[in-house]
User: Fold UvrABC system protein C from Gelidibacter salicanalis.
Amino acid sequence: MSKPTLEIQLQTLPNEPGVYQYFDANDKILYVGKAKDLKKRVSSYFTKNHDYGKTKVLVKKIVTIKHIVVETETDALLLENNLIKKYQPRYNVLLKDDKSYPWICIKKERFPRVFSTRRVFKDGSEYFGPYTSMKTVKTLLDLIKGLYLLRTCNYDLAQDKIDSGKFKVCLEYHLGNCKGPCEGYQSEQDYHDNIAAIREILKGNFKDSLSQFKQQMRVHADAMEFEQAQRIKDKIDILENYQAKSTVVNPKISNVDVFSIVSDEGYGYVNFLQLSYGSIIRSHTLEIKKKLDESDEELLQLAITEIRQRFHSTSREVYVPFEVDLGEEIKVSTPKLGDKKRILDLSERNAKYYRMERFKQDKIIDPDRHANRIMAQMKVDLRLSEEPRHIECFDNSNIQGTNPVAACVVFKNGKPSKKDYRHFNIKTVVGADDFASMEEVVYRRYKRLLEEEQPLPQLVIIDGGKGQLSSALKSLDLLNLRGKIAMIGIAKRLEELFYPDDPIPLYLDKKSETLKIIQQLRNEAHRFGIEHHRNRRSKGALTTELELIPGIGEQSIVDLMTHFKTVRRISSATFEALEPVIGASRARKILEYYKK
Assistant:
């Protein structure tokens, strides 16, 4: 498939948070931006009149739009920072400097310090973040300082130095902000218990801390100290909205390549995320056409080799959804939980969105091609002699045997043709007999089509198992249509497809477009039938009460319902309102009935 036009690329963007990248005709990156809603944000570039000349020139140069979908707006902000610093796009002014977002560090020391930093060192210390707001960092550090007494000095508190009395407590000890581990006034175990509690707060588990803040806020409010209460409330709001981790930046993950795959009958879509020092610096999705019936494992193995060569990747570790053989020099991991699994899920999410967009672009560029492909696929999957351009599906609806009805929905070229939908009220069957009801409606439907010389469908789907299918086939036999119309039944529980005179059902791949269209037909027939059934029940419930009134016949009920619309209005109507509609005598009978 050729590269879609800019207009089509805009139409198929997702309404999700993420980062967008603009490229020129030479595939050179022009601009990187973030968005809460990718489609709205990117479309605004092409619908607004821009005041700045730089933006006008940028928009004229854009030929290709690429994007990376992430889970949150915070992740989008961090990913934007990574990509701008990596590629230095010409039209990005901000974020090109060497500044980075802040982290909170628990220093690897005997008595660890806790502080904010913008630089990450691989020295065994723990880093939490990055944070998109320094205000959040300060709030967390204030929270920690208010709950736990920690040292702020940078002394080397080795046990022998403490025992020798090398250090003396400072002003922080006398102010009550530190317990004095430098003079041995606080044990190492007690200090590490505090650090363990702080670690939970930084991971986002600060339920107890929040309850303490709320208690303080109430105390200040009761004491009419509203400014102090508001300050604490601001901290509560920040902490409640605080996100402990980012998927796109993680210092625990170093240089690694991440691959995932989604596939259908014709294509495989392999997404590649490249991480450098824990930050995503590239996303690319490769579309592979299946030549034979290759498995996902075979496609992924081929794609990994091609992508790594294209982008000159030298990473010695890859994350994949299942085991693949990449040789002895590369470590292959299949994450099941934690941060690594979240990265793999992000890759799969982008592969799914890419596949969805390609389908949308295919439909816009050549809608007939899309329909032709699906019809050809259905013919093969369902073992039909011709493409099912015209499909009809039948479903029965009755609840506790009341008001039995049936529905027939029609799809043409894989899409609903609502003007051809039909309802059936069951006429010859007494009670809830699904088999006899199916036999009746199929007979009535195709007898009428034959009489009116209307075109017959290539495929009929019966919602039900072998019993309903056998009943429908009896009607085809009576009309001499057996063999002229293909008919299958679908059972709900395992999505089994039954064929006439074949005891073994057919099971289609759950990702198959053929199965999805059959399910859509079945669900539409069920919805259409239930809707008609409810209407009949409602109508029956409304008219039954009026029929109980002595002297009120069918025509009077029709006149009343036409005028008043509901039974409730009729029951509360006055004599003066009723008399012009049905006459004085019948009006008195209705008033007497409702008076009782």
About this structure: The first strand starts at residue 18 and ends at 23. The radius of gyration is 35 Å.
